[in-house]
Amino acid sequence: MRVGYNPYKDQILEGTYHHQVVIPVYIPNQEGYFKDSFTILKLCLESLFNTIHQKTFVTIVNNGSEKLVSHYLDLLLKENKIQELVHTENIGKLNAILKGLAGNDIELVTISDADVLFLPNWQMETMKVFKEVPKAGVVGIVPQFKMYESNCGNVLFDTLFNSELRFVPVKNKAALIRFYDSIGWDRNYNQDYLAYNLALEINSELNVLIGSGHFVATYKKDIFETIITYIGYKMGGNSEGYLDSLPLKKDYWRVTTQDNYAYHMGNTLEDWMGTLVVLKTKQEVVHYNFENKKRVHPILYWMKNRLFVKFISSKLLVKLFLKWKKLPKAIIEKY
């Protein structure tokens, strides 16, 4: 029988964190593909701990990893280096992410793979973009090739006649090369991609690149106010498309910092990873109290993200767009 009154009944939850980081981890063994994954995970988390402010809530979802990895994560929780640890069998990457998103009301959430090496100031630069670009709903920190071609119909629609939308020189060519090395590409891609990125000038001190990659990005949490509870793929399928579609339904833009603030390590340990020590730095705590947006009307969604995208993707209009937005004439033909 119950005796007495639970002192926590009807008590209002008060949020103490301003930023959440969710990282799903799947390391079933340390052989073959996963030979270096445990070491890379440790580098990832150490770089994270050294580059976040004290109001950051770190969630790790252990998605069916071996016991050695599980024990390591348990120790991090015991040492208060992470705030939440979920152990589960391998339920798939996105299902693991969905578990990490539930149960809190933190205004920003960074979703990251377990092989990201975070660099100093990534969190501050991300917050700067959200502050200066109210329509930003997804902010990446690793520039990539031609990101504007994916899930950016609404951004291009909204800024098409803005003279501040134009191609600008790549700010960190070495980091861009390193990213494509990390995903196993040969360097026989179009070298012009290393020269220019499509950007929007926000002010004299801030440019943002149009579009964002998937492996590490920060989202406004209100994007996930209604989420499904199950995706039927371990990876691939419609899982990444689900995360891509949610921001568009609220007409949020996908953008990326102009400079590079993280490295993708992949599954193979390389010498530079161990030598690149990310030192602990004091980070400013910022809280913006973003206003939640309503879902955009379906007709407007269709116009921006379906009809407009199909229209502007025609071969003739693509070339006109590249010329109009100041891509040098000499490289338009093959860009």
From TrEMBL:
Keywords: Transferase
All residue ranges annotated as the Glycosyltransferase 2-like domain in the record: 39-155
GO molecular function: transferase activity
Pfam family for this entry, one: Glycos_transf_2
Segments forming a coiled coil: none
Keyword Transferase: yes
Protein name per its UniProtKB record: Glycosyl transferase family 2
Organism listed in the record: Flavobacterium sinopsychrotolerans
